Amino acid sequence: MPAEKKKTTTRKSLPKPLKKAPAKAAKLTRDEKYRLYLASVQNTQADIKFINREYKAIYGKAPKSLREDFCGTGLMACDWVQQNDECTAYGIDLDMEPLAFGVVNHYDKLSEDEQSRMKYINGNVLSKYDFKADVTVAFNFSYYLFKKRTDLLKYFTSVRQHMKKDGAFFIDLFGGTEARKELEESVKHKNHTYYWDCSKYNPLTAECLYYIHFKTHKDGVKHEKVYTYDWRMWDARELLDILEEAGFSKTQIYWEGVDKDGTGNGNFKKTLKAENCESWVTYICALP
Ligand SMILES: C[S@@+](CC[C@H](N)C(=O)[O-])C[C@H]1O[C@@H](n2cnc3c(N)ncnc32)[C@H](O)[C@@H]1O
C-alpha cells in the first residue's frame, strides 16, 4: 500500500536505493510477515472513526454491522466489535493463511461476548451470503485485483445486493502523478523499514505490479517481495461511474486536507475538486 496510508497527499519521491548484495537470511515466518504488514500499513482506528462519522452524517445514527471484504487478518472486523455490544462484524477472505493469523492474534484477544459478534468467513466476496450489513468495506485497495471493468461491476453489484436499505459501502483508492511511475518509497519504523515498490506500470492497460519489501533492523536484511500486488489502477471518476452502474443511487468522494507542510492531516471532506498532487489516498462512499 502507499506508505503512510491516509496521511500524506504530497509525498516526495525517494531516489531508488543503490542495489547492494543483500545479506542472506532466513525467510520471514508467517507471523513475522503479518506483524510487519500490520505495523506498516493498516490504520483501522482512523478508518472506523471516518466510517462512523460519515454514516451518522448520512443516516443520523451509528452503524452496527460491518462486512469487511478482502479482510486478510480481519483486524478491522475485530476492532469493530470492540466499539460496543451492539456491533457485529463479518470478515471475508479467500485465503486461510491471513485468516489463521487473525484468529490467533486478533480474535483470540477479544472477550467471549465480542467473539460471539465477530465471524470470519473463508469465502469469496463474489458469493451470495445470507446476511446484510449496515457498512461494507473493501479497504487497502483490494478490489484493484479486478482488472476488467465487467469483473469490478460484478463485484460492486454483488455488494449492492447484500446491503441494507440504510447501508453504506466504503472503498479506499489511491493515485497521483507518482502512482503510475516505477518508484520505490520507504518508511522507517522503529524496528523495520517498509518499502512500497511500484515495479511496473503499463500505461496502455493501467496494469501495475507492486511489491512490499521489509528491512529488519536487527540483522539489516532486506526481505524482498514479501507481498505482491498485480493490480489495475482504477481512476476515481471511473469508480464513481461503475458504482452508479452497479445500482448505487448516490456516491460521495472525499479529499484529505493538508497541514502547512503540505502533508495530509487526516481530515477528509466531501468534494469533487482536488489538486493534482504526486500521491494521494482517499475514500468513496456509495449508498444503495
Ligand atoms: C491486499 S490484501 C488486504 C487485506 C486486508 N484488507 C488488509 O488490509 O490487511 C487482499 C486480500 O484479499 C483476499 N482476496 C483476494 N480475492 C478475494 C476474493 N475474491 N474474495 C475474498 N477475498 C479475496 C486475499 O486473500 C488477500 O488476503
Describe the structure.
The protein has 288 residues and is of the alpha/beta class. The protein folds into two domains: 40-174 and 235-287, Rossmann fold (3-Layer(aba) Sandwich), CATH 3.40.50.150; 177-232, no CATH class. It contains seven helices and twelve strands. It has an eight-stranded mixed beta sheet. Strands 6-7-8-9 form a four-stranded antiparallel beta sheet, with helices on one face. Helix 2 crosses helix 3. The longest helix is centred in the first third of the chain and has 16 residues, at 44-59. It is globular. The model is unreliable at 4-18 (pLDDT under 50). It binds S-adenosylmethionine.
Give the topology.
Elements: H1 30-40, H2 44-59, E1 65-69, H3 75-81, E2 88-93, H4 96-105, H5 112-116, E3 118-122, E4 133-138, H6 149-161, E5 163-175, E6 183-188, E7 192-202, E8 207-216, E9 221-232, H7 236-245, E10 250-258, E11 264-270, E12 280-287
Parallel strand pairs: 1-2, 1-4, 2-3, 4-5
Antiparallel strand pairs: 5-12, 6-7, 7-8, 8-9, 10-11, 10-12
The structure holds S-adenosylmethionine.
S-adenosylmethionine binds at residues 42, 70-73, 92-95, 98, 124-126, 139-140, 142, 145.
